[in-house]
Amino acid sequence: MKICHITSVHSRYDPRIFQKQCRSLVKFGYDVHLVVADGTGDEIKDGIHIYDVGKPSGRIKRMTKTTQAIYKKAVELNADIYQLHDPELLPCGLKLKKRGKKVVFDSHEDVPKQIMSSKAYIPFFVRKAISYLYGKFEKKVIK
Questions:
Q1: 26-30, 41-45, 47-51, 103-107: which has the minimum mean pLDDT?
Q2: Domain 2-108: CATH architecture, name and number where available
Q3: Among 26, 46, 117, 143, which one is most buried in terms of CB atoms within 10 A?
Q4: What are the domain boundaries of the chain?
Q5: Against a cut of 0.85, is the pTM above it?
Q6: SS3 track for 51-62
Q7: Model pLDDT, residue 115
Q8: Strands across the sheet with 43-45, in order?
């Protein structure tokens, strides 16, 4: 079974994604692929195929061009299961699901709460609306 982990934010050797999840899957005989956006290039490490779509030059490009490049690579890999690690990848997950793929969203943070408390780059007067809209979007997509 081919499993593809996807991240647009985390490093390729992220302790949770690479060390705990990907390495464990390889240990149990799965064909594991990891798509990242760090600008370091492709490699195979510990049996994990790592694909780099290039490091974006800013948050906006990461959330637009990088997610498009990640989706394109994910489709090309044609995995059985995709595991998404970042909220901005939910639209990619929807598209993969429409292609009949199994998709897991690995959410370990409360994004609406984070938007309200720790996203200083978002103007305060729009945080509440963005937080609310994202919360609704996430609930709909996860169903």
A1: 103-107
A2: 3-Layer(aba) Sandwich (3.40)
A3: 26
A4: 2-108, 110-143
A5: no
A6: EECCCCCCHHHH
A7: 63
A8: 43-45, 48-52, 31-36, 2-6, 81-84, 102-105
